[in-house]
Amino acid sequence: MKINLEKIINIVGKENISTDPGDLLVYGSDSSVHEASACIVVRPGKIEHVQKIVIYANSKKIPIISRGAGSGMSGQAVPIKGGIILDMKRMNHILEVNLADVYCRVEPGVVDDDLNHVLKSHSVFYPPAPASSRVATIGGEIANNASGVRSIKYGAVRDYVLGMKVVMANGDLVSFGCKNRVEAAGYQLDRLMVGSEGTLGIIVEATLRFIPIPKLRCMGTAKFNKLKEAGDSIAEIMASGCQPSLLELMDNIAITAVNKAMDFGLPDVDAILMFEADGMVKEAIDFEMKKIKAICEKHNGFGIELSYDAKERTRIFSGRKKLFPSLSKYKELFACTSLADDMAVPYSKMAVMAQKIHDVAKRNNVIMTAYGHCGSGCMHTKILLDPTKNKQWDNAKNAVKEIYDFVASIDGSTSAEHGIGISKAFAFKKEKHDSLNFMHAIKKALDPNNILNPGKLMDAPDDWVTATRLRYKHN
Ligand SMILES: Cc1cc2nc3c(=O)[nH]c(=O)nc-3n(C[C@H](O)[C@H](O)[C@H](O)COP(=O)(O)OP(=O)(O)OC[C@H]3O[C@@H](n4cnc5c(N)ncnc54)[C@H](O)[C@@H]3O)c2cc1C
């Protein structure tokens, strides 16, 4: 693929491009198992740069992959068709915090925690908070419809996007949505961009709403000797009308991983539930916590501890927060892979899903863990395997298929928060089989030359082993 470097340098300046092989290697992967090589990394500093680069790429049919922090776990930002990586992190300004009209305007490269740091000084926050909020950018979060630990009460990114500016595949700059809380004016095109994984347009500005920071939070933990009983508690809590602001599950593998990696001292039980209620009035929080505690006890939860203390809450939750990196230390030489890792599951099926993960792991001789933001309907797992052993990859492939077949059988959904990218495309295509034609029609209408992040979502290969950075070679 031939790219006119002079042309790109004229747009963004020499200091904002790179064809260095080291950079191309780094920008060739994200937090998934995938890798591929782009031809060039370009760092636009303003909307006009993005427009000019897109116009050039469209005229030559060169792929463009927008990239935030590269923390996506499914290969969304991996350039499997080569082309230009558009690193959006230079566009990282908070343009406006409008307290009177309750919105803020940001550039796409603003990091979630940085935005919340500024909002905090006004006693408000933008709640979706993925566990990666220290690095994840607003552009990446919107393109992935990210969510997080408090989405159980506050919702996902899509619930906070009021509007946005987008550079389309032909270079046009368009505005979708508005700055107001409600709008009933025609197609909700801002919604179309949410979760589009960079395949329909490049988000260059976002208008987000925010809400007041609750004055009080109370966090609790409950231990369980049976994983199923923790799962049943989740189902009953969510069906009972309780409004927790956090409800997280950790199974024994997750507990062991954190203890091994950090010497954390979590109790060696089958499962732990962490729960929280928040608000402005202590009596209301006490009421929620009492109800949740009673439900856990009904399902044999024990050793229940509750705390309003901020330091103690942080300590309790840090084990969960550090879980993902800890899993890499669970077994020497084993890698922690994000495969079939964030299924959306009906509450009533949470317990069987957790058990299924363990059964599938055992049958396929891989290590898998059941954990996650179960209160918002998201069951996480990771597959731990020795990446040097082809047989382990074959086992993982079987396990992934079994998991998704099961998820389909219980009316779950392929991805609750990490997106589709490459890894989950085969399951996504199966799940959305009756709407794929519409997706293709929309893609063709908005990006007729297929330059925007090609080969992702419904256009990704069925075989997720494609383009893996872990040197898998199929036997
Ligand atoms: C340790 C860890 C924990 C995580 N926890 C969570 C979690 O709790 N919840 C959750 O939802 N996710 C989580 N993730 C996944 C990931 O962090 C989120 O999906 C995040 O929103 C990705 O943001 P990013 O800036 O890294 O995007 P990238 O990975 O760089 O890109 C993701 C997608 O967005 C597109 N994109 C990026 N910027 C733009 C733009 N300006 N315009 C159009 N498209 C764009 C890219 O093309 C790509 O398709 C986690 C990841 C890690 C590594």
Strands, helices and their partners?
Blueprint: H1 5-12, E1 17-18, H2 21-26, E2 40-42, H3 47-60, E3 64-67, E4 84-87, E5 94-98, E6 103-106, H4 112-120, E7 124-125, H5 138-144, H6 151-154, E8 161-167, E9 173-177, H7 189-193, E10 202-209, E11 211-212, E12 216-224, H8 227-239, E13 246-251, H9 252-262, E14 271-279, H10 282-298, E15 302-307, H11 310-321, H12 323-327, E16 335-337, E17 342-344, H13 350-364, E18 367-368, E19 371-372, E20 378-380, E21 383-385, H14 390-409, H15 425-431, H16 436-446
Parallel strand pairs: 2-4, 3-4
Antiparallel strand pairs: 1-2, 5-6, 6-10, 7-11, 8-9, 8-10, 12-14, 12-15, 13-14, 13-19, 16-21, 17-20, 18-21
The protein binds flavin-adenine dinucleotide (FAD).
Residues 30-31, 65-73, 76-77, 88, 108, 130-132, 136-137, 139-141, 143-144, 146-148, 197-198, 202-203, 324, 417-419, 453 line the site of flavin-adenine dinucleotide.
What does this molecule look like?
This protein has 475 residues and is of the alpha+beta class. Among the domains are: 90-212, Uridine Diphospho-n-acetylenolpyruvylglucosamine Reductase, domain 3, CATH 3.30.465; 215-418, 3-Layer(aba) Sandwich (Vanillyl-alcohol Oxidase, Chain A, domain 3), CATH 3.40.462. It is built from 16 helices and 21 strands. It has helices spanning 5-12, 21-26, 47-60, 112-120, 138-144, 151-154, 189-193, 227-239, 252-262, 282-298, 310-321, 323-327, 350-364, 390-409, 425-431, 436-446; strands at residues 17-18, 40-42, 64-67, 84-87, 94-98, 103-106, 124-125, 161-167, 173-177, 202-209, 211-212, 216-224, 246-251, 271-279, 302-307, 335-337, 342-344, 367-368, 371-372, 378-380, 383-385. Helix 1 (5-12) runs antiparallel to helix 3 (47-60), helix 8 (227-239) packs antiparallel against helix 13 (350-364) and helix 13 packs antiparallel against helix 14. The site of flavin-adenine dinucleotide (FAD) has 37 residues, from strand 3, helix 5 and strand 10.
